[in-house]
From TrEMBL:
The keyword Nuclease applies. It holds the Pfam family Metallophos. Heterodimer of SbcC and SbcD. It comes from the Bacteria. One of its GO terms (molecular function) is exonuclease activity. SbcCD cleaves DNA hairpin structures. These structures can inhibit DNA replication and are intermediates in certain DNA recombination reactions. The complex acts as a 3'->5' double strand exonuclease that can open hairpins. It also has a 5' single-strand endonuclease activity. Residues 1-218 form the Calcineurin-like phosphoesterase domain. This is Nuclease SbcCD subunit D. Residues 267-355 form the Nuclease SbcCD subunit D C-terminal domain. Keywords: DNA recombination, DNA replication, Endonuclease, Exonuclease, Hydrolase, Nuclease. Belongs to the SbcD family. The keyword Hydrolase applies. Gene3D superfamilies: 3.60.21.10.
Length: 387
């Protein structure tokens, strides 16, 4: 069976001040063409179809168009909700839509109930694990601790139990939206840390033939059978070196697997430039970036006059301007930035306690801070899924 694995469309999202709806429509066109050209048997979309729980009307219309075009091809499509989607809204009408071959899997309680498709060699069971917000689903899965690993492990126990009851030789595909250990993050994914932990080990998914992951925006291979497709379009300048693509996966009769990357169309290249304003304006080596979307980091010791206007004369698609003056290593601004670099919310809160009090929090206080951070995240998740 030949699968096309994609994820993280984020319909309705902009790139800085650029409306990406046209580029997203171009991707849908490309997706439909790829399904037809490569004789795809099934499409899997691993979450974050929309960029927010209540998407703009234009994004909903584009999604509707994508569903109609995929259904018209007669190729089954399996989709799950991600942490940006409202599972309840995305799942509206799932029963009716399923009759057209579009299978929306947004209910955590249905993780162990697969979509079963057949090819010449037998059944392939597709299990949809939508984004599982630990605080909201721990009771559904009967786990005591609200963490990503416990709830995903419980969901996968249901998957393996169902698979064990099926005919020998049944092949299996899992769609999941999660941060799996070994994956490389970018600046455009929403933080899903719970209890100080964001990632789960890839071993949670042992026992299935292919795991189609969503959430991280870079296409990457964690193991031969566990892969992220990444987002089809860039949503932050941290993705400047990404090659945006989808996975074309062939699942053999015996569960053997081969995978090939299919490139997605690039609306405009990204460039991250750094230097003084005069250097950026004068360097002939930067001519290749003049039509790119540009993030410029200015290192001038004193902020120059009208930097955006002057940069835009040479780089008309400059979208982001960052000021990072070259400073002495002992400059307070430098040391503060270094202290914050790469720090989690939990670590920043603990650092603040140490700064104010002169001594960092003890174990009990760390637990209180962790619970407070998790409570804020859980409250945000509830607000996102509320009707």
């Amino acid at each position: 069976m030949r699968l096309l694995h994609t994820s993280d469309w984020h319909l309705g999202r902009s790139f800085h001040r650029v409306n990406m709806l046209g580029a997203q429509a171009g991707f849908v066109e490309h997706l439909v063409a790829a399904v037809r050209t490569h004789d795809v048997d099934a499409v899997v979309v691993a979450g974050d179809v929309y960029d927010r729980a209540v998407p703009p009307l234009a994004a909903v219309e584009l999604f509707d168009d994508a569903l109609h075009r995929l259904a018209a091809l007669g190729v089954p499509t399996v989709m799950i909700s991600g942490n940006h989607d409202s599972a309840r809204r995305l799942g509206v009408g799932a029963g009716l839509i399923q009759r057209a071959g579009i299978h929306l899997r947004t209910d955590p309680a249905a993780c162990g109930t697969p979509v079963v498709l057949r090819d010449a060699f037998g059944d392939v069971a597709f299990y949809g694990l939508p984004y599982l917000e630990p605080a909201l689903v721990k009771d559904t899965f009967g786990v005591e601790r609200a963490g990503h690993e416990p709830v995903l492990a419980a969901a996968m126990d249901q998957v393996r139990a169902d698979l064990a009851a099926r005919a020998p030789g049944t092949r299996s595909v899992v769609l999941a939206h999660a941060f799996v250990t070994g994956g490389r993050a970018s600046d455009s994914e929403r933080d899903i840390t719970v209890g100080g932990v964001a990632a789960v080990p890839a071993g949670v998914f042992d026992g299935v033939d292919y795991v189609a992951l969503g959430h991280l925006h870079g296409c990457q291979t964690l193991t031969e059978r566990v892969r992220y497709s990444g987002s089809p379009l860039p949503y932050s300048f941290s993705e400047a070196d990404h090659r945006k693509s989808m996975w074309l996966v062939d699942l053999g009769a015996d569960g053997s697997l081969t995978a090939e990357r299919l490139d997605c169309p690039v609306p405009r290249p990204l460039a991250r430039l750094r230097g003084t304003l005069e250097e950026l304006l004068a360097d002939p080596g930067l001519a290749r970036h003049e039509q790119a979307w540009v993030e410029a980091t200015l290192t001038d010791p004193v902020r120059p006059a009208d930097p955006m206007a002057r940069l835009s004369e040479r780089f008309p698609h400059t979208l982001s301007l960052v000021f990072a003056p070259d400073r002495a290593p002992d400059d307070p601004a430098v040391s503060y930035a270094r202290r914050l670099a790469g720090r989690t919310d939990q670590q920043i809160a603990e650092d603040f306690v140490a700064h104010v009090r002169g001594v960092g929090p003890d174990g009990r206080e760390q637990a209180v801070l962790r619970d407070a951070v998790d409570a804020v995240r859980a409250d945000h998740a509830v607000r996102e899924v509320a009707p």
